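Newbie here. two chains, one complex. Structure please?
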Amino acid sequence: MSDFKMKDIAWAKINEDVLASLESPRKAFWIVLAVCFALVLCGAAAEIYQYNEGLGVALMNNPHYWQTYISNFVFWIGMSHSGTLLSAILLLTQADWRKPIYRFAEAMTFFSIATAAIFPVIHIGRVWDMYWVLPYPNQHAIWPNFRSPLLWDAFAITTYATSSALFLYIGMIPDLAICRDKAKGWRKKLYTAMSLGWMGRATEWIAFQKTYVLMACFLVPLAVSVHSIVASDFAMSMMPGWHVTSFPPYFVAGALYSGCAAIITLFVLLRYLFKFEAYMTPEIMDKTARLTFAIAMAWNFLNLSEYASIWYSHDMFEHEMLIDKFTGPYAGVVWTMLFCATIVPFAMAWKKVRVNMWAMFVISLLIQLGMWLERFQIVSPPLASNHEPWTQVAVWPGLVQMTITAASFGWFTMLFLIFCKVFPSVSMYEVKEMVYHRNKHGKKKLQDLEKIKDDMIKTEEGLS
Amino acid sequence: MRRIRKKHFLFATYDDFEKAKDVVGQLNALDDKEDIIDNIELYSPIEHPEVNAMLGEFHQPIQRFSFFGGITGTVLGLIFAAGVGQSMFTVQPQGGKSVITIPPDIVIAYEMTILVGVLSTIAAFLIYSGLPRRVKSYYDHEVGVDQIGVEVETHPDNNEKIRATLEGCGAVEVRELTS
């Protein structure tokens, strides 16, 4: 592991490196972007086909009306959690290692929500009626059901998307001013408008720091509430397998877990594509991996307690549902999920693995696969374990659903990469703060050591 | 017609916070003694609470906006959910359920608390930071890189004294400006 502690880097170099990332990423950046764009085109084609033919082509039929699209919705909402939530928690706890990585994590949040928001639209089939979920007065006197968690979703996700976008934007203002000072052409105009005339005055800094901390205070409970509400979509139904009291904390832990894994994936990707080796160091990866490992254990505990409470409850229907999950047609999904999300994270117990970028990249992808399967095994198997024999059929996502699912990954990555190409994905001013404080701390340590050394020499002289 | 007096400034840049701290201290002392400085403004690439504290107290009660914004959000959420949405009972069948159901209304009020709280905080930020504004014509881009700028507003007659103080603390550059 490199012993580079990021305290020897000059402030001007930080600006230079980050601004260079906006201009000249590696060639691989364009290849990844092109692949993502191709996936988005495939997804658009699949959606147009489904729009014309009806939801039957997605193999959705009564009672299998909630399937991959809803799994994707839950997955992407979950993915959005770690960025803002972890950034806010680490800001409040003053963990300075968050500084080089929080910007892209917050961006990840926003683009995950943008991806998640597409799925209810695709899922309902009648895309043109989507505005019906919004609470507004109309001449039919139709109001959405305020008692339904689906409406709470509309409130929670709108609040989360707005607050996360503002949190990301406010945190970026000092860096946008730096970009403004160096940019030319359309970028200059964009950064000038977005930086709001920031000049780094003391008044601005004080207001900025206060605002940022206050927003973090709002965002922590908000993030927890959003995924709890998504969990309520399931938990408040009477369906065996969904009607689980521990679902809200289980969903929140799962969201944090998959979000942390996504941070690791994007960490490695950005480090390589934008040449951020000096900022996204193995030291930071080590800390992120430790955090992910801790969250993995919390998620596993909640998973286990869900199984245990069903097992010992002696509720016949829940019991049957649980056994069916492990032995029925979806058993492969459940066991793969357990391997990817329960066994694989134990590899992070070794430091050698934690500081190896490509090993962590593979682990993070496996964890995300596990967490996607987790959402799928929450949504699909209960629908196939119904009490009507004609419904007891395992339905697997067809080509249309899988194409749209793959396209969602392309869509997310495409938006994310475009963001990183246009806006600084490493926070310049926060890295400077980190360098400044580490240097100051290092100097003080050195002075203390020298003082101890002088005292020892004096004591020795006195003795002799 | 009333003539607007032009403002006169001295703008110095430093390559170290310690030097900026020294100069602010000395300028404060000079002002205490001779009362010749109208205002001191600090420009920096990062926040430095110690130097900022030397500039005097900044009254920025942003947290009050957050607090009252949050309360307003709660009230709006409750009014919206209970007062508007659920009171449509005359046209919407309720299936025997109570007209206003508190648990779901609390969820909506909770989300509205946060939304309005966040928006109020942003409004307070814009008010107290003085943003958005035009970038000053003499703004030094190096302040965004690694320099610390100290801007002193004074009468042109006091130039020499202030320039001497600014240079005495190791300024990289001192400029005279009028706006």
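Moderator note: Residues 11-439 of chain A form one domain. Residues 428-463 of chain A form the longest helix (36 residues). Thread marked as resolved.
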